[in-house]
Amino acid sequence: MTDVGRTLDHVSPFYITTPIYYVNDAPHIGHAYTTVTADAIARWHRLLGDETMFLTGTDEHGLKVQRAAEENGRTPAEHAQLTSQRFRDTWDSLDVAYDQYIRTTEPRHHVATQELLTKVKDNGYIYKDTYAGFYCVGCEAYYVEDDLGPDNTCPVHEKPVEWLEEDNYFFKLSALADELTAWLESGAVRPDGKRNEALGIIKQGLDDVSISRTSIDWGVPVPWDEGHVFYVWYDALINYATAAGFGSDTESFEKWWPHVHHVIGKDILRFHCVYWPAMLIAAGLQPPKQINVHGYLLLGGKKLSKTGLTQIAPADLTGTFGVDGFRYHLLRDVSFGPDSDFSHEGMVVRYNTDLANNLGNLLNRVATVVGKKCGGIGPTPNPESPLAAVVADAYAKTADFWDKMQPSFALDATWDIIKAANVYLEQNEPWKMEAGSPEVMNVMGDAIEVLRIAAILSSPALTSSTDEIWRRIGLEGSPADQVLPGAAQWGGYPGGLEVEKGAPLFPRLKVEENS
Ligand code: MSP
Fold first, then answer.
1. pLDDT < 70 stretches in the chain
2. Catalytic one among 64, 110, 121, 154?
3. Is 13-313's fold the same as 345-514's?
4. Is 339 near ligand 1, meaning CB less than 6 Å away?
5. Is the pTM above the cut of 0.85?
6. Dihedral (C-alpha) 378, 380, 385, 388: value to the nearest 10 degrees?
7. Quick one: DSSP state of residue 489?
8. What is the pLDDT of residues 208-263, one digit of tens each?
9. Quick one: CATH architecture of 13-313?
C-alpha cells in the first residue's frame, strides 16, 4: 500500500487550534462542531504518527465579560473562572483530547501579547489617534454605518450598537495588502470560496484598525502607555502564539509555529484571515500555515443564538445518541465549508444507518458467527481476500480526505469497507457453513480484519466504541495507539484471539420517540 497520508502536504509536527470561546456564552452544538472537528483531525494526525498539539481554550477579556460579571455581582476574574470551566467540562464530556487549554487571563498570555505587539510597534506598524464609531459589544467590534441593520442595529446580533469615542492605538493594516494577498494566494486559507472572500476584503481596500481601548480595564495592558488595554480581539488572536511558546519558550515556538493549522467558523474570517496574518507579518513572524474555515450550523435556517433561544447544548443530544453518536453526526453529516441545517430526524437516520445497521451489525454478526462456527476464536484473514483491495482503496480515500480537512468524506470512505464486509457476509452466508470448515474460517477472518481496520480508521470520530470493538475482537491496547498506514494494511489481525459477544454497541433508535 502506498504511504498516502504522508505524500500529501502535511509534515510532522502538527499543531491544530480551535477559536477560543467567549466565556459569557454557554457551550452549544455550534461550538462543539468546531471543537470536535479539530479534535478528530488531531486524532487522525496522532494515528499518522505525527507529533501533534491540539489547543483550545477561552477568550476572557473585553467589555462583554466585564459587563456580564457586573450583572452577576462578581469580579471579571471570578466570572471568567466559573464560565471558562463550563467549556472545559463540555469538552471533557465529549472526549475532546486537547493537549493545552489556554485562558487569556493567564500571565504567560499577557507576556506574549505585550511582547508580540511591542514588536509590531517597534517595526513601525502602530500609531496613536482618536477613534469614534459604532460599536457592538456582542461582537466586540466597531462597525461602519453602511454595515448596520435598521435603527443602527448590529448585523450579527440584531441589537442596537453604541457610539464610542476614545484615544486608540492603531495598527497599520493598510500597509500590508500586498503581503496578505501573496499569503492568501499561496493557498493558506481553505476552502477556496473562503480564501476568495478574504481576498475580496483586501481588494475592497484595507483601513488601519484600532487595537487598544481606554474605556475598560479588563484586558492586557498596553506596556508603553498606562491606561490603555489591548482591544480583546488582538489579545485573543495571540493565544495561538502564546500556547506554542511565544514569549516563554522560544525553542517550543520555533518547533510548533511553522505547523499551525487554525479551524474557525466563517463569522471570524476577517479577524483570522486578514488581521491575524497581518499582525504576524508586522511582528516579523510567519503568518499561519493554514486556516480552515467552516460554515454555520443552522437551526431552521438561522444561526444558533442565545437571543433566539435556539441554542442546543451537547448534553441535550448525548443522552439519546451517546457521545460517539453525537461526534459521528457532527463529523459525518456536516460537510466542512458550507452552512448546514441541524436536524434531529436526520441525526436519527444517520445513527441508525451507519452506526446501528452498518458498523453495529457487522460487529454483531462477527461475534455471533465466530462464537457459533469458529469456537469463539477469531481466525486469521485470508491474504487473497477480495476485501483487501476494497480496504486499500478506502484507506487511500480516507487519508486524502482527512488531509484535506473533510471529515464527512473521510468517514464516508471508511464506511465503504464496512458496507463491503456486510455484503460479503450476505453473499457468503457463513452462518450456513459447516462449523470449523476452512471456508467459514476464511470468511470470518476477513470480516474480523475489516472490523479491526474500520476501528482504527473511525477512531478519530468514535472514541470509546472503537476501543470496545477492539477489545471484543480480542486485541490489546487501543485502535487510537496504532500507526498508519502500516496498521491499515490487510492481514494485521493475528487470529487465535477470543472474540466476545456483548450487548449492541449502537442500539437502534426509533424516529418517532426521539424527534
Ligand atoms: N472569542 C472569539 C474567537 C477568538 S479566536 C482568537 C469568538 N468566540 S465565540 O465563542 O463566539 O466562538 C466563535 C466560534 O464558535 C465560531 O468561529 C465557530 O467556530 C463556533 N461557532 C459558534 N456558533 C456556531 C454555529 N452556529 N455554527 C458553527 N460554528 C459555530 O468568536
1. 1-11, 305-310, 512-515
2. 154
3. no
4. no
5. yes
6. 90
7. S
8. 999 998 878 899 999 999 999 999 999 999 999 999 999 999 999 999 999 999 99
9. 3-Layer(aba) Sandwich (3.40)
